[in-house]
Design a protein that fits this description.
single chain; 294 residues; mainly alpha; Glutaredoxin; Ferritin; four-stranded mixed β-sheet; 4 strands; 6% strand; globular
């Protein structure tokens, strides 16, 4: 892990626990050299073009002194490295197995955080057509969440688990955002089937090895990205659905947010021949289209 010090910390001030922890760090020696930014209330320009507010609220982010942006466990390690009293902890986090464990624990915290974060305002009602379109993305994300859960439970490789924990946290956040718009009664009837299928696909790819898991994860990310790109384009001319379009655009940005996740290894040609990219990509797109047939 890089020893680069923190320049700016972006935290969610609407989360009482997050706010309390940041307040603790700000009282430590060395904290005066760091800019502490509440992403829930600051001007969007303060975050920078590479950090949308939705992403900044989803995870702790730190912009290092060299300008690079990290999040999650890597962000905490960077803060610790900037505070003299915590540098021993940063040294421990520099060990890759521990950093992977920290990332997994942080992903678990993100799952619980909505229980005490201030509730956001309910979105405006949507038209029947908009609700029907939104079911596509919800089915896709439901399958995606289970896919990464299948990998996380089955994989034994530390790098694969760390990368998957990150992707699971982000996919779960996207799913929650879509659920804020889509009433439970309007969700696809085949969701249980696609959840089981997604989990089995993830577990099978992990059992085939870390490179197979990386290939399947990459294919799934591409399918998710294509889906959101199409949805955002469809809503481009709908001024009455600007808020929904903004949500979908943010979800697409989260799909590409990989700053702190360990990169999967290069895919070997022999694994491409096994069809992991085809299975994951086509399977995700079928999950997205399933609600229209349900």
């Amino acid at each position: 892990m890089s020893a680069t010090a923190a320049g700016t910390v972006y935290f969610d001030g609407a989360c009482p626990l997050c706010r309390k922890e940041i307040a603790h760090y700000r009282r430590r020696a060395g904290a005066e050299a760091i800019d502490w930014v509440d992403a829930a209330t600051c001007d969007p320009a303060v975050l920078g073009a590479d950090l949308p507010r939705e992403a900044a609220l989803a995870r702790l982010h730190v912009r290092r002194a060299d300008g690079s942006l990290v999040s999650g466990a890597a962000a905490f390690a960077t803060i610790w490295n900037s505070l003299p009293g915590y540098r021993w902890l940063a040294g421990l986090a520099a060990r890759r197995p521990l950093l992977a464990v920290m990332e997994t624990a942080y992903a678990g915290f993100l799952r619980l955080r909505p229980l005490w974060r201030r509730a956001a305002a309910s979105p405006a009602p949507l038209s029947e057509q908009a609700l029907a379109d939104l079911r596509d993305g919800h089915a896709l994300e439901a399958a995606t969440v289970q896919f990464f859960r299948g990998i996380l439970i089955t994989a034994r490789d530390g790098e694969t688990r760390a990368a998957t924990a990150y992707e699971l946290a982000v996919a779960h956040l996207r799913l929650k955002r879509l659920q804020q718009w889509l009433p439970a009664a309007r969700r696809g009837r085949l969701l249980p089937l696609w959840r089981v299928t997604g989990w089995c696909a993830g577990a099978a790819s992990a059992l085939a090895g870390r490179r197979a898991a990386g290939a399947a994860s990459a294919a799934l990310r591409r399918a998710v990205d294509r889906h959101y790109a199409a949805q955002v384009e469809q809503l481009a001319a709908r001024a009455d659905l600007a808020d929904l379009r903004s949500t979908l655009a943010a979800c697409r940005l989260w799909t590409a947010e990989r700053d702190s996740a360990p990169a999967h290894p290069r895919i070997q040609p022999r694994l491409d021949a096994l069809g992991w990219t085809v299975i994951a990509g086509n399977g995700a797109e079928r999950a997205a289209a399933a609600p229209r047939r349900a």
